[in-house]
Every structure is written in structure tokens, then in C-alpha cells.
Amino acid sequence: MDNLKIQENLPIANLTTMRLGGNVRYVVTVNSSMEIPQVLEFARQRNLPYWVMGSGANTIGRDGGFHGVIILNQIKGIYIGSTSKLTPLRDLDEGFSRYLPDEIIIQAMAGEIWDDVVELACNLGYSGIEAMSKIPSTVGAAPVQNIGAYGQDMAAVIQQVEALDTKTGQFVKLKKDEMKLGYRHTRFNHGQDKDRFIITSVTMKLRQGQIEPPFYNSLQRYIDEHQETDFSPKNIRRMVSTIRAEKLPDPARIASSGSFFTNVYLNKAEADIAESKGTPLWRNADGGGKINAGWLIEQCGFKGQLLHGFRVSEKAALVLINESARNYTDLAKARAEIVDAVEQRFGYRIEQEPVEIGDEA
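User: That's the sequence. What structure does it adopt?
Assistant: C-alpha cells below.
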């Protein structure tokens, strides 16, 4: 274990984009899959729990800190090609782009920045993840939450993940149908297998072409306003990046976890009722619908308000910005006010998207 990079007593606030949380006992950075069993053994010998983290954008630290081991997954590498042969991106020659097939496989290691992979795919002309541009995530976290945006999600493109099964101690490959992918709900973050697998790589299949209408509401508004007619992956990425920059704070500069609340998903009967009341929603292929949590929060008058040190964003009300709060208690108070008000007015109980680590003080 001498090769492991181990740090002690670091503030969780320094590891997460919301900038909250007490100290963590150990932080261990892993740069290869083979280091993960070593870290787990390090934790086992000390009888400590562990927590896997990437960019920290979807993690909230509690005031009591975490008496355990945070594993920072920084395993790098991107491979592209076909199902029969994958080539490291750095080994591709300059003429590669002239011979691109209609479909391509991209395998990215868990520590890669998600948006770097999106940019690569769009530059090569492949569709499937362009609407998920600028999501602050590492690749390994993407299937855990089944990330999605503007009508696309991981479930539509993912083929398999490679992971360490902490129950057996073996590295395994899980196919898409083994992941139980739903809206922000997967085998990796719910149920008896929650936290069982430490993902080391993600494999996706993308296709040449472009997404077709109907477009997600906010994207369609942008298209109409700017009279866009080019829906290529590269151009959709440009549009989505612009929309997100206008609505969502950059977590590298402003303390935030991005979209703090999940949207409300309805079955067909519920969607019909909501629509009859004039509630704006996005219809799914099965007739169900999705209500933007930001719209619900805005209707309750919270947009732009400061609650216990947290600003409800004036640009996107489902975003909370940590302006002056320094503890989890303030976040809990602000969250409760918003959740209770939405439930009282609309009957929907919105839920927090980021997961939490540590103990309350």
C-alpha cells in the first residue's frame, strides 16, 4: 500500500462543490483499477467505512464529518472503436476521422471528466450524449445517477460498466439490463446492491446523425428564438452549453451542486390531471410526464430568495447557491422550507438529488 496517495483529516467541504462538511479521516486517490482493492483493504484493516467520489458535484457533506475513507476515483483513459477492437484515443492517427463507421463504441475510465467525453463524441459527429453537455460529473458517476438532460440520458447509450464487486472482491462486467436504470434511480444507488459496485469504466454505443424533434422545452425555445436549423451533435452541444451557462452556476466558481432537486415524474393519469390544471410538463413516450421542479419552486415565490445562507437561483429555481452558509443545518432548513411549500401548494413532494456523506454535528 506504499504506492497509495493517502491524505488525512481533509474537510469534505474542500472536496465537494457545495462547500459543506466536516473533516474526513482519510482521502485516498486511485489512478488505476488495481489500486481499489488495496484501498478497501486499507479501510478494512482500520474497520472504517468508505465512500467513492469523483468531482464532488453530487455529494453534500454533513457537519459531523466522515470517520472513514473517501476514495477519489481518478482512473483515466478513453478508448474508441468497434465492439471487436478498442484503441486508446492517444494512439489514433490523424486520418482516423476519415473512416468513421455509422456506430462507434466509446469506453471511458471512471475518473475521466464526463464533458470531455461528450466533446470528443460531438467533434467526431456522433449523437447520443450531446444534450448532456456540461453536466458536472466524472464518467464513473454517470451511470450511478443515470444522468440525463434535455431529453437524453445514459440509459439510451450505455452498453456495460466494468466494476469491482465489493461483495465478491472480483472485477465484473455488468450489461445494461443488469443496471436497473430509471430516472436518477439505478441498481448502483438504490436497493440491496446500493454501493456494492465501484465502477472503473463505462462503455457506450453512439451513432452518426442527429437528434430529431420534438426537442426538450427549453432547448426548443432556444432553437425558435435563434432560428437554429443545424441539429448536428456539435451544434446541439453548443446550444445546450449556452443554455446551461445562462441558467446554472459554474461549480468551480460558485458553491452549488447544480440541480439540487429532481423533477417530478407522473404516470399517464397523473399527467393528464396536471395538464388539465395548466401545469407545464414534458410528455414521455408512454404518455406519462415530467414537471420541472424549478417551475414548482418558482410558483411558490422562492426564485431569487435567500434562505438560511442559500440563494434560490434567479435563473433556475431548482438550483441552490451557497452564498454564506457554513453548515449542513442551514441547508436542511432551506430545503425543508422549499419542499414543504411545494407539497402544500401542489401536492408533490420534491426530492433532493445530491447524496449526503457524514454525520450531523
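The first strand starts at residue 5 and ends at 11.
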